[in-house]
Amino acid sequence: MKTLRKFLCWVFAATSVASLQVAFQFIPRTIQRPHALLHPSNWVGPALLAASAVFFGLAWWSVWRGKPSARRWGIAASLVYIVLSLWPVVLFWRSAWESFWFLWANFGLVLGIGVAGLVAFVRRYEQPSITTRTQENQPIHGDGTIGFVNKTKELLVFAVSLGVYYWWLGWLKDEDFVSHGFWHDIVLLVLVILIITTLHELGHAATGLALGMKLRAFIAGPFQWRVQDGKWEFKFTPSQILLGGGKTGVVPTRADFPRWSYLCVVAAGPLANLLVGLFALRIAFSTEGDSPVQAGGALALLGAWSLAIGGLNLLPFRFKDSYSDGAVIRQLLSKGPWRELQRIVPVVRSSLVTPLRPRNYDIQAIQRASRGITQGAQGLLLRLYAYTYFLDQGCMLEAGEALKEAESVYDQCASEITPELHTVFVFGSAYVRRDAVAAREWWTRMEAKKPTRFDVVYWSADSALCWIEGKLKEANEAWEKSNALAQQLPKAGAFEFERYCSSLLRKALDETSTAKAASV
To answer: Can you give the residue ranges of every domain in the chain?
Structure first.
């Protein structure tokens, strides 16, 4: 529902802009006919469109900013869409009908948006707190981003995308291309965005593979390939058709991978977009309009939008727990904790494909970066890296302190933490700190996130929680599930660490069972 509401938010914005544009188109026509100025009927259409622009603009603003009134505005806007979709049926005013011709031609789409809006907004949902919304856009010291861009990134992307779209419509008109209708444009826009996203991610992936890295994930819109527990898995996520976006996971095959290699991988994505954009526009501008190469004007749209997305990606901004390519490049070129972080994270990820274990991490580098990065998901991850290092070293006291530090950062980025990451806190609270109350609290938080993966770490956390709560039967059953899955994992440092944690828990379960039997 959150994804649908976010999509509808920008549909409201697009409707507001379109209504305002059509309203302004009425003015020159009316002025050219002075005798019509005094006739009220000639101003009803523009007035209604202007009111529509204001109405949908307010609906967009309230939903985008997470206002308490967002739900009411969302419901009201959705009802208006439903009414407008029925306009051709009850229409009796021809002049108004002509201004809304696009609603008649596509009333099914408008009705679908209205119904989807009711589904998304009628159902009560928890508004993000003011603190959470503030923290999402709050600048993090030294991360290389610009505060203003962080706060307005979605609006900026919308404005640039809308500008490209209107430029494309004007270009089609100048080149005498025949319009194929609204639905054709919608499908074309979705396909172009998917192509641009795929090319961007291919730039990252191809460069990483050429430099000797290994591919662990490739996501382009709704198509998602990931390595889970040593095996490739494919997942199709329809909601991502609306929002787009992509991600490439490449990991180094050795700990001393040079910094310039990371820079090349990060820069390859936006560079691919810029090159494709220039190439596509060059062909579009130099080829006859009736040429099949033009693909009905799609090539011009691909080129313009590819350039826009490539340029936007080079802007330094943060989106929840991730950073734009431009921000990562700035961090890699900087001095201090963020540069250290960009060196640490790939090394940690390399444990998925190399014998490197958490006990082999550079703990001094992790601690230096932790002192400079004290907030956000990155601050929490650094402390969890230290926790796993000390746990793998058998230093339980230090591991407990690192976990406690991670807990202190958690509240600043709770909305960004995945359900799977909560299992680390459950296991650590139960086994390392021997705190049953804290372990149960973390388990409750994890369940609230609705986990979908029931893997080794999930069952290990379940076993540790049952063990610390004295439920030995349930603890042993969960451990058996965890151990069975652990034995199937490939031979790599990260998975050896999971098997090590499983052995620690097995020892604790056996000692507790022996002590209980002796007491009887």
So the answer is: 2-127, 153-328, 340-519
Cα distances (angstroms) measured from residue 320 to each of 44, 75, 134: 44, 27, 11
- Distance CA(197)–CA(222), nearest Å, equals 11
Phi, psi at 226, each rounded to 5°? -140, 150
Model confidence pLDDT, tens digit, residues 153-192: 888 988 998 899 889 988 888 888 876 666 677 788 889 9
**366 token code pair:** 């992790």
Please, where are the H alpha helices in 179-336?
A: 182-210, 240-243, 259-286, 298-313, 325-333
What is the reported pLDDT for 126? 59
Give alpha helix (H) positions in 314-375.
325-333, 337-350, 363-372
Q: What is the pLDDT of residues 292-315, one digit of tens each?
A: 888 788 899 999 999 999 999 999
Instruction: Please name the residue ranges forming H helices in 32-67.
Output: 41-64
CATH of 340-519, one of 1.25.40, 3.40.50, 1.10.1760, 2.30.30: 1.25.40
Q: Are 275 and 308 in contact (CB under 8 A)?
A: no
Find the mean pLDDT for residues 436-456.
93
Q: What angle do CA 211, 217, 222 make, to 5 degrees?
A: 135
Provide the β-strand partners of residue 225. 218, 234
Greater pLDDT, 272 or 99? 272
pLDDT for residue 101 is more than 80: no
Token pair of 253, please?
């095959």
